[in-house]
## 1
Amino acid sequence: DVKVTQSSRYLVKRTGEKVFLECVQDMDHENMFWYRQDPGLGLRLIYFSYDVKMKEKGDIPEGYSVSREKKERFSLILESASTNQTSMYLCASGAGAVTEAFFGQGTRLTVV
Amino acid sequence: GENVEQHPSTLSVQEGDSAVIKCTYSDSASNYFPWYKQELGKRPQLIIDIRSNVGEKKDQRIAVTLNKTAKHFSLHITETQPEDSAVYFCAASNSGYALNFGKGTSLLVTP
């Protein structure tokens, strides 16, 4: 069974804090993704990575950065958290081109 | 980039009826079209997918059709059951790396 694990289920952070969201997958997948899910807006791609140390911007990268130092781990960083970054964050991984993406359980982040 | 439109945003059907959700995409190079189901409080999970060299695919009560010329694809659920109630997302991939999702359809199946 593929497992994609996000480090926290719920997080509450203060405005201006640096926030790290961690994601680990155990299936040796090349591709990893960070999505943001908001009601009525669906799943929007923030960043993705197709190899270690490689990253590509998605549709809404502003205010975020990512790090992929090891194949199994993909981190999302909010450099200076703002209230408009309050959201559900979903990590996913996939084996390669045109294949199923497996999602983590999500991190609900609240910025106050 | 790829733009995926999904309709309707909400859908209510009676148990036993059929449900149809439609999506359109903008990039003619897209070649992979999955559908995900997300139950309340859970992660999205793949229920069916179709590739651009196939026009239709079925798996028990669910089917997906693809019209490449018109750039649209649809999810069909027959004999709906209350456990089909969830949010359904369509997606398209034109690069093979990242999926672009529609905004989702909230399906409610009433007994």
Note: Chain B is about 0% helix and 55% strand.
## 2
Amino acid sequence: GQQLNQSPQSMFIQEGEDVSMNCTSSSIFNTWLWYKQDPGEGPVLLIALYKAGELTSNGRLTAQFGITRKDSFLNISASIPSDVGIYFCAGLNYGGSQGNLIFGKGTKLSVKP
Amino acid sequence: NAGVMQNPRHLVRRRGQEARLRCSPMKGHSHVYWYRQLPEEGLKFMVYLQKENIIDESGMPKERFSAEFPKEGPSILRIQQVVRGDSAAYFCASSPSRDTQYFGPGTRLTVL
């Protein structure tokens, strides 16, 4: 089945630093989504990407849909303590009976004040 | 606009009992998805439903697990005769079409 490789697995950074994480796949997706999950909560949608090559920002977050449709990255600029959490990428193909998200294993972000 | 609602947030069951997890999608959303998450793992797809229909159940075990999304009321994920391996967080997501999915807070199931 389809799999997503998300890296890095974890990051320890200083407050104010920029962060970059990415996801790659062996197969193409129609949509890439980035979520953040806090302990004990559900994933919260950060950014949705619908077109190859698309670059989208949401405040300090920027994400891009790779031109090959097999990868995506997420950047966080000037990190703050509340950025702590687990970030997941997810790929979506919709067609026929499909519609489910394929998730990466997550990047755990720790921010030192 | 209220988000996706799930209840209960925490559920404890003994082996052999039944677990019922409920999900109310966002207003106007007719597509519901159920996912399961083990500790330190990403979410794994279980089943996709659209009002009164199961569209894709390829990720759901064929034994003991069932899901429904009736015309009226919430979507239900039912696990019969639970075993310890069923302990996990179960998340529901909804979408207005087969597109961006919004997640609920999850139900944490513990099987004793």
Note: The two ends of chain B are 37 Å apart (CA to CA).
